[in-house]
Design a protein that fits this description.
The structure holds 2 protein chains of 2 kinds. By secondary structure, chain A is of the alpha+beta class. Chain A has a single domain, classed as Heat Shock Protein 90, CATH 3.30.565. Chain A is built from 4 helices and 5 strands, in the order αβααββαββ. Chain A has helices at 3-13, 40-56, 61-82, 134-141, and strands spanning 30-37, 90-97, 101-107, 144-150, 153-161. The termini of chain A are far apart. Chain B is an alpha/beta fold. A 5-stranded mixed β-sheet of chain B has the order 1-2-3-4-5, sandwiched between helices. In chain B, strand 3, helix 2 and strand 4 form a beta-alpha-beta unit. The termini of chain B are far apart. Classes of the chains: A alpha+beta, B alpha/beta. The interface between A and B is medium-sized, with 25 and 24 residues.
Amino acid sequence: MNGAPRGATERMKKKPVSEPQEPVSHPQAGRLSLRLSSTLESVAEVEAAAQELAFAAGLDEDERFGVALAAREAAVNAVVHGNQLDPARQIAAGFENTGAALLITLADQGKGFNPDLLPDPLAAENLLRGSGRGILLIRFFMDEVHFRQLQPGTGLTLVKRLAPAGGKHKALPPRASSAG
Amino acid sequence: MALTIAFREVGDVTVLDLNGRITLGEGSVQLREATHGLIGKGGRNILLNLEQVNHIDSSGLGELVSAYTAARNQHGEVKLLNPARKVHELLQVTKLSTVFDIRDEEVSAIASFSR
């Protein structure tokens, strides 16, 4: 029913899908913009779009996992914490391969928040909290994370730099022998 | 893929074989209902077999913690068995690896529960 977002997603999916190439090459520039309702289905759509973006950029499985998880956490923040699952509010999501980096943007229409005021989930007194780890995971898997206060809402930009051939993500240990 | 949960009793330990995703809207609720249901019925020793859990997010990690604290409040324990590499990494990143007893072998995991 929501023709524009679905059409945009379909355009993205029409790209031929192949296994990631040699270390990392990123010839497939492009941008996808979505406006989505404040639902958990939208979270899944953001995660899938990020996964596709990372796949098209030639990132390996571990890196794709990290990018998709970071996008998912950002979408959960936008939908649940920002828009509070309010059907009258939407989120905007953007996915872009600039050739040098993957950019994922999320914007909600909530009250906004100051990420510097969030409790440290790694502090001993917070380890047994049931929530509050999403931004930690986003920061872990992405190279840069930028917050913006909107009127209203919060904007978030996630940056995953595309390493030159032979480069490797900082976070994940090398995969066990993938000799080939 | 949604989460499926199979229950096994091994002595006085309940093993939950989890398969699929533990994420918000796709498994976190099932995990909460399963673990809190068990604990509510007096189950004290729970071993969560994570070998076939291929994805977890912060909500899923929160549910693991919730099960841990609920069991501990009933003088029980929740332990983790054989998390897949990516899940194990997330446990390390969040320092939950310092909270949970994480085992890689079921027999010794069962034996490690206090009686």
